[in-house]
Specification:
By secondary structure, the protein is of the alpha+beta class. The chain has helices at 80-92, 147-155, 162-175; strands at residues 4-13, 17-26, 29-38, 42-47, 53-61, 65-69, 72-74, 94-106, 112-113, 115-126, 139-146. It has a four-stranded mixed sheet, with no helix packed on it. A four-stranded mixed sheet has the order 7-4-10-8, with helices on both faces. Strands 6-5-11 form a three-stranded antiparallel sheet. A hairpin with a 2-residue loop joins strand 2 (17-26) and strand 3. The N and C termini lie far apart (39 Å).
Length: 179
């Protein structure tokens, strides 16, 4: 049975998200479905240096506490690649010459419409642009770890951010690390 939306109303919105309640008929009958819609897609960057190390940022999330993640952020309506380049610079102070689009995913697709673009960034150099700092982004630390160590951190639960796990999977598949 396909879902049927009978009525929809926005119950909250700000510049980043819209939350709505839909009166629906679905596989279980009639009910209310809450949906979060991101206003702009997010971007995730797996930055890999010449020593095969992945860039990770550590920050404290309001919702979940301390989190270890790949650089990421909102696209603010701009082209996803431009957003990824901006986020890498803002969060790490690095720029990349080589960019590869790895794929698109959807976060929390059971409750949200939140498309996300994943990029692999290589040929990295520190930027001279000092207009942004990690502190302004809420970042406590920027670390560079071997790809295999990052996989270990996912395996043992030190990395729990779902989008980071998926972004590393996209990169690992592209780089042939899961054979």
């Amino acid at each position: 049975m396909a879902w049927v939306t009978h009525e929809s109303s926005t119950v909250y919105e700000n510049r980043w998200i819209e939350v709505r309640e839909d009166q629906v008929t679905g596989p279980g009958g009639d009910g209310i479905y809450g949906v979060v819609t991101m206003r702009h897609p997010a971007v995730f960057v797996v930055a890999l240096d010449d020593e095969d190390r992945v860039c990770l940022v550590t920050l404290e999330r309001y919702t979940t506490g301390v989190s270890i993640e790949v650089p990421a952020g909102g696209s603010d309506g701009e082209d996803p690649l431009a957003a990824a380049q901006r986020e890498l610079l803002e969060e790490t102070g690095f720029v990349a010459e080589d960019w590869t689009a790895l794929g698109t995913m959807n976060a929390l697709n059971g409750i949200a419409h939140a498309p996300e673009h994943v990029f692999l960034a290589r040929s990295l150099t520190p930027s001279d642009d000092s207009t942004h700092t990690q502190a302004e982004e809420g970042i406590d630390a920027v670390t560079w770890l071997p790809f295999s160590d990052v996989l270990g951190m996912i395996s043992d639960g030190r990395i729990t951010d779902g989008e980071t796990v998926a972004a590393i999977a996209y990169a690992g598949i592209r780089l042939g690390r899961f054979r």
